[in-house]
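cron nightly-structures :: item 1 of 1
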Amino acid sequence: SCLLHAGLYAEGRTIVVEPLPTRDHTEIMLAAAGAAVTRRPGRVAIGPAERLRLGEVDVPGDFSAAAPFVLAATLLPGSELTIHDLGLNPRRIGLLDVLERMGARITAFHRRRSGGEPVGDLVVQSAELVATTVKAEEVPRLVDELPLFALAAASARGESSVEGAQELRVKETDRIETVRTSLRALGIRIQKRDDGFGVRGVPTRPKGGGMSSNGDHRIAMLGAVAGLVSREGVELGDAEAVAVSFPGFFELLDSVTQR
Protein backbone atom coordinates (compact mmCIF):
# COMPACT_ATOMS: atom_id res chain seq x y z
CA SER A 1 0.00 0.00 0.00
CA CYS A 2 2.77 2.46 0.88
CA LEU A 3 4.57 1.78 -2.40
CA LEU A 4 1.41 2.26 -4.44
CA HIS A 5 0.60 5.53 -2.70
CA ALA A 6 4.17 6.71 -3.25
CA GLY A 7 3.78 5.80 -6.91
CA LEU A 8 1.11 8.50 -7.24
CA TYR A 9 3.86 11.10 -6.80
CA ALA A 10 6.74 9.35 -8.57
CA GLU A 11 8.01 10.07 -12.07
CA GLY A 12 6.92 7.36 -14.47
CA ARG A 13 5.16 4.13 -13.57
CA THR A 14 5.75 2.24 -10.35
CA ILE A 15 5.53 -1.55 -10.55
CA VAL A 16 5.09 -3.79 -7.50
CA VAL A 17 5.83 -7.49 -7.99
CA GLU A 18 4.33 -9.96 -5.51
CA PRO A 19 5.12 -13.70 -5.37
CA LEU A 20 1.64 -14.50 -4.03
CA PRO A 21 -1.67 -12.61 -4.29
CA THR A 22 -2.08 -10.20 -1.37
CA ARG A 23 -4.84 -7.90 -0.15
CA ASP A 24 -5.92 -5.54 -2.88
CA HIS A 25 -8.05 -2.94 -1.08
CA THR A 26 -5.57 -0.19 -1.99
CA GLU A 27 -5.64 -1.02 -5.69
CA ILE A 28 -9.44 -1.10 -5.70
CA MET A 29 -9.83 2.23 -3.91
CA LEU A 30 -7.18 4.05 -5.94
CA ALA A 31 -8.71 2.82 -9.19
CA ALA A 32 -12.14 3.98 -8.01
CA ALA A 33 -10.62 7.41 -7.31
CA GLY A 34 -9.29 7.69 -10.84
CA ALA A 35 -5.69 6.54 -10.45
CA ALA A 36 -4.05 4.77 -13.40
CA VAL A 37 -3.83 1.30 -11.86
CA THR A 38 -3.18 -1.79 -13.96
CA ARG A 39 -3.14 -5.31 -12.58
CA ARG A 40 -1.75 -8.56 -13.91
CA PRO A 41 -1.08 -11.85 -12.15
CA GLY A 42 1.84 -11.24 -9.82
CA ARG A 43 2.19 -7.49 -10.40
CA VAL A 44 0.47 -4.15 -9.90
CA ALA A 45 1.46 -0.93 -11.69
CA ILE A 46 0.44 2.65 -10.95
CA GLY A 47 1.19 5.94 -12.66
CA PRO A 48 1.46 9.47 -11.28
CA ALA A 49 -1.77 11.34 -10.62
CA GLU A 50 -2.44 15.05 -10.25
CA ARG A 51 -5.80 14.69 -8.55
CA LEU A 52 -7.98 11.89 -7.17
CA ARG A 53 -11.77 12.09 -6.90
CA LEU A 54 -13.14 9.52 -4.50
CA GLY A 55 -16.22 11.13 -3.02
CA GLU A 56 -18.29 9.32 -0.39
CA VAL A 57 -17.16 5.81 0.55
CA ASP A 58 -19.20 3.16 2.35
CA VAL A 59 -16.81 1.06 4.40
CA PRO A 60 -18.07 -2.53 4.84
CA GLY A 61 -17.55 -4.57 7.97
CA ASP A 62 -14.01 -5.86 8.41
CA PHE A 63 -13.72 -9.61 7.99
CA SER A 64 -10.87 -9.95 10.48
CA ALA A 65 -13.11 -8.36 13.12
CA ALA A 66 -16.00 -10.66 12.19
CA ALA A 67 -13.90 -13.84 12.13
CA PRO A 68 -14.05 -14.55 15.90
CA PHE A 69 -17.84 -14.40 15.75
CA VAL A 70 -17.92 -16.68 12.71
CA LEU A 71 -15.79 -19.24 14.53
CA ALA A 72 -17.74 -19.01 17.78
CA ALA A 73 -21.03 -19.61 15.96
CA THR A 74 -19.47 -22.57 14.15
CA LEU A 75 -18.17 -24.23 17.30
CA LEU A 76 -21.00 -23.56 19.76
CA PRO A 77 -23.72 -26.23 19.31
CA GLY A 78 -27.12 -24.88 18.35
CA SER A 79 -25.81 -21.51 17.22
CA GLU A 80 -26.99 -19.40 14.32
CA LEU A 81 -25.56 -15.96 13.65
CA THR A 82 -26.28 -13.41 10.91
CA ILE A 83 -23.68 -10.77 10.04
CA HIS A 84 -24.75 -7.89 7.79
CA ASP A 85 -22.75 -5.65 5.44
CA LEU A 86 -19.53 -7.62 5.64
CA GLY A 87 -16.61 -7.12 3.27
CA LEU A 88 -16.22 -10.30 1.23
CA ASN A 89 -13.11 -9.50 -0.77
CA PRO A 90 -11.82 -12.91 -1.95
CA ARG A 91 -8.30 -12.02 -0.84
CA ARG A 92 -9.47 -11.48 2.75
CA ILE A 93 -11.88 -14.34 3.40
CA GLY A 94 -9.55 -17.31 3.27
CA LEU A 95 -10.81 -18.44 6.68
CA LEU A 96 -14.32 -18.83 5.25
CA ASP A 97 -13.02 -21.11 2.51
CA VAL A 98 -10.99 -23.16 4.98
CA LEU A 99 -13.87 -23.52 7.44
CA GLU A 100 -16.23 -24.57 4.67
CA ARG A 101 -13.66 -27.17 3.60
CA MET A 102 -13.74 -28.43 7.17
CA GLY A 103 -17.53 -28.76 7.07
CA ALA A 104 -18.72 -25.38 8.38
CA ARG A 105 -22.22 -24.24 7.47
CA ILE A 106 -21.78 -20.70 6.16
CA THR A 107 -24.08 -19.04 3.63
CA ALA A 108 -23.45 -15.69 1.93
CA PHE A 109 -26.42 -13.78 0.53
CA HIS A 110 -27.40 -10.29 -0.66
CA ARG A 111 -24.06 -10.05 -2.44
CA ARG A 112 -23.31 -6.67 -3.98
CA ARG A 113 -20.46 -4.24 -4.63
CA SER A 114 -19.74 -1.05 -2.73
CA GLY A 115 -16.88 1.23 -3.73
CA GLY A 116 -15.55 -1.55 -5.91
CA GLU A 117 -15.44 -4.00 -3.00
CA PRO A 118 -17.61 -7.15 -2.79
CA VAL A 119 -19.99 -6.97 0.18
CA GLY A 120 -22.65 -9.30 1.52
CA ASP A 121 -24.39 -10.82 4.52
CA LEU A 122 -23.47 -14.11 6.20
CA VAL A 123 -25.46 -16.72 8.07
CA VAL A 124 -23.31 -19.04 10.18
CA GLN A 125 -24.68 -22.19 11.81
CA SER A 126 -22.93 -24.57 14.15
CA ALA A 127 -21.28 -27.60 12.58
CA GLU A 128 -18.92 -30.47 13.28
CA LEU A 129 -15.55 -30.01 11.61
CA VAL A 130 -12.92 -32.28 10.08
CA ALA A 131 -9.20 -31.60 9.84
CA THR A 132 -7.50 -29.84 6.95
CA THR A 133 -4.14 -28.37 5.94
CA VAL A 134 -3.61 -24.69 5.15
CA LYS A 135 -1.03 -24.52 2.37
CA ALA A 136 1.52 -21.73 1.90
CA GLU A 137 -0.34 -20.26 -1.07
CA GLU A 138 -3.45 -19.81 1.10
CA VAL A 139 -1.69 -18.04 3.96
CA PRO A 140 -1.90 -14.42 2.65
CA ARG A 141 -5.71 -14.74 2.54
CA LEU A 142 -6.03 -15.65 6.23
CA VAL A 143 -2.76 -14.74 7.91
CA ASP A 144 -4.50 -12.71 10.64
CA GLU A 145 -7.04 -15.47 11.22
CA LEU A 146 -4.55 -18.33 11.63
CA PRO A 147 -4.73 -18.19 15.45
CA LEU A 148 -8.49 -18.74 15.14
CA PHE A 149 -7.88 -21.55 12.66
CA ALA A 150 -5.78 -23.27 15.33
CA LEU A 151 -8.79 -23.27 17.66
CA ALA A 152 -11.04 -24.58 14.89
CA ALA A 153 -8.50 -27.34 14.24
CA ALA A 154 -8.52 -28.27 17.92
CA SER A 155 -12.25 -29.02 17.67
CA ALA A 156 -12.01 -30.84 14.33
CA ARG A 157 -11.69 -34.58 13.86
CA GLY A 158 -8.13 -35.46 12.82
CA GLU A 159 -4.79 -33.68 12.45
CA SER A 160 -4.63 -30.21 10.90
CA SER A 161 -1.60 -28.13 9.99
CA VAL A 162 -0.44 -24.77 8.66
CA GLU A 163 2.47 -24.51 6.22
CA GLY A 164 4.43 -21.52 4.90
CA ALA A 165 3.31 -19.08 7.60
CA GLN A 166 6.68 -17.68 8.69
CA GLU A 167 5.12 -14.20 8.68
CA LEU A 168 3.37 -15.12 11.93
CA ARG A 169 6.71 -14.80 13.69
CA VAL A 170 6.94 -11.04 12.99
CA LYS A 171 3.45 -9.94 14.02
CA GLU A 172 2.69 -8.17 17.33
CA THR A 173 4.07 -11.33 18.92
CA ASP A 174 5.67 -14.44 17.50
CA ARG A 175 2.24 -15.89 16.87
CA ILE A 176 3.47 -19.39 16.17
CA GLU A 177 4.91 -19.50 19.68
CA THR A 178 2.10 -17.51 21.31
CA VAL A 179 -0.63 -19.68 19.78
CA ARG A 180 1.20 -22.84 20.85
CA THR A 181 1.71 -21.62 24.42
CA SER A 182 -1.85 -20.34 24.73
CA LEU A 183 -3.62 -23.40 23.39
CA ARG A 184 -1.43 -25.85 25.28
CA ALA A 185 -2.43 -24.04 28.46
CA LEU A 186 -6.04 -24.86 27.57
CA GLY A 187 -5.35 -28.57 27.12
CA ILE A 188 -5.06 -28.53 23.31
CA ARG A 189 -2.46 -30.69 21.56
CA ILE A 190 -0.48 -28.38 19.28
CA GLN A 191 3.07 -28.59 17.95
CA LYS A 192 4.94 -25.61 16.55
CA ARG A 193 7.01 -25.78 13.38
CA ASP A 194 9.39 -23.32 11.78
CA ASP A 195 6.72 -22.19 9.31
CA GLY A 196 3.49 -22.94 11.16
CA PHE A 197 1.98 -25.50 13.50
CA GLY A 198 0.16 -28.80 13.68
CA VAL A 199 -2.94 -29.49 15.79
CA ARG A 200 -4.39 -32.84 16.80
CA GLY A 201 -8.09 -32.19 17.11
CA VAL A 202 -10.82 -34.01 18.94
CA PRO A 203 -14.54 -33.36 18.39
CA THR A 204 -15.09 -32.36 22.01
CA ARG A 205 -14.85 -29.02 23.77
CA PRO A 206 -11.36 -28.13 25.07
CA LYS A 207 -10.84 -28.10 28.82
CA GLY A 208 -10.05 -24.40 29.27
CA GLY A 209 -7.71 -22.72 31.75
CA GLY A 210 -5.61 -19.56 31.88
CA MET A 211 -3.72 -17.72 29.13
CA SER A 212 -2.45 -14.25 28.29
CA SER A 213 -2.73 -12.27 25.08
CA ASN A 214 0.83 -11.01 25.61
CA GLY A 215 -0.40 -7.67 24.27
CA ASP A 216 -1.52 -9.15 20.94
CA HIS A 217 -5.07 -8.27 19.91
CA ARG A 218 -5.49 -11.39 17.74
CA ILE A 219 -4.48 -13.63 20.64
CA ALA A 220 -6.94 -11.78 22.90
CA MET A 221 -9.73 -12.57 20.42
CA LEU A 222 -8.57 -16.18 20.29
CA GLY A 223 -8.77 -16.38 24.08
CA ALA A 224 -12.25 -14.89 24.12
CA VAL A 225 -13.61 -17.46 21.67
CA ALA A 226 -11.79 -20.25 23.49
CA GLY A 227 -13.51 -19.13 26.67
CA LEU A 228 -16.91 -19.51 25.04
CA VAL A 229 -16.32 -22.96 23.60
CA SER A 230 -14.26 -24.56 26.40
CA ARG A 231 -15.74 -26.65 29.21
CA GLU A 232 -14.31 -24.62 32.08
CA GLY A 233 -13.86 -21.21 30.46
CA VAL A 234 -10.69 -19.16 30.06
CA GLU A 235 -9.08 -16.66 32.41
CA LEU A 236 -7.64 -14.21 29.88
CA GLY A 237 -4.77 -11.96 30.89
CA ASP A 238 -4.07 -8.66 29.11
CA ALA A 239 -7.52 -8.81 27.52
CA GLU A 240 -7.49 -5.06 26.89
CA ALA A 241 -5.11 -5.63 23.97
CA VAL A 242 -8.20 -6.28 21.86
CA ALA A 243 -8.83 -2.52 21.78
CA VAL A 244 -6.00 -2.11 19.26
CA SER A 245 -8.36 -3.14 16.46
CA PHE A 246 -11.80 -3.64 18.05
CA PRO A 247 -12.55 -1.48 21.13
CA GLY A 248 -16.12 -2.79 21.55
CA PHE A 249 -15.27 -6.44 20.98
CA PHE A 250 -16.22 -7.87 24.36
CA GLU A 251 -19.45 -5.88 24.60
CA LEU A 252 -20.57 -7.12 21.19
CA LEU A 253 -19.55 -10.68 22.02
CA ASP A 254 -21.62 -10.51 25.20
CA SER A 255 -24.63 -9.16 23.31
CA VAL A 256 -24.72 -11.97 20.75
CA THR A 257 -24.10 -14.76 23.26
CA GLN A 258 -26.85 -13.70 25.67
CA ARG A 259 -29.69 -14.27 23.21
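cron nightly-structures :: done
The chain is about 30% helix and 25% strand.
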